[in-house]
Amino acid sequence: MSIARVRGRGQVTIPASFRKQLHLEEDAAVNMILIGNTVVMAPYEARGEKLAKKFEREMRKKSVSFEGLLRELKEIRRENNQRRYGL
Asked: In terms of domains, do 35 and 64 share one?
């Protein structure tokens, strides 16, 4: 357990040992949840960013360009609208 003080503007310093264990670098974002009178903090995981990078890798593997992807999505949308609405 560690004790921290709340400073001006609500700032709290996370102990260095905790930051090291959680791999929190300077300016890292954290999720905060209030449960009763307890604040729970956890490293923020940017899932959208990770998903975008994974998607980009897969596109490169399959030699798909962004423009090609947009063309395919437009065609799929047109086909779906034709099936559903006769448009």
From this structure: no
> For the CA atoms of the chain, what is the radius of gyration?
23
**Joined tokens for residue 78:** 């047109």
**How many structural domains are present in the chain?**
2
Neighbours of 59 (CB within 10 A): 14
Centre a 10 Å sphere on the Cβ of residue 22 and count the other Cβ atoms it contains.
14
| Regions of the chain where pLDDT drops below 50 | none
Tracing tokens 């998607």 back to the chain, one arrives at: 55
Question: What pLDDT sits at residue 49?
Answer: 77
The whole domain housing 25 covers 8-43
Percent of the chain with pLDDT over 90: 30
- Do the domain assignments include residue 66? yes
Task: Please tell me what DSSP assigns to residue 6.
Answer: B
pLDDT at site 2 = 86
Shared domain check, 54 and 37 = no
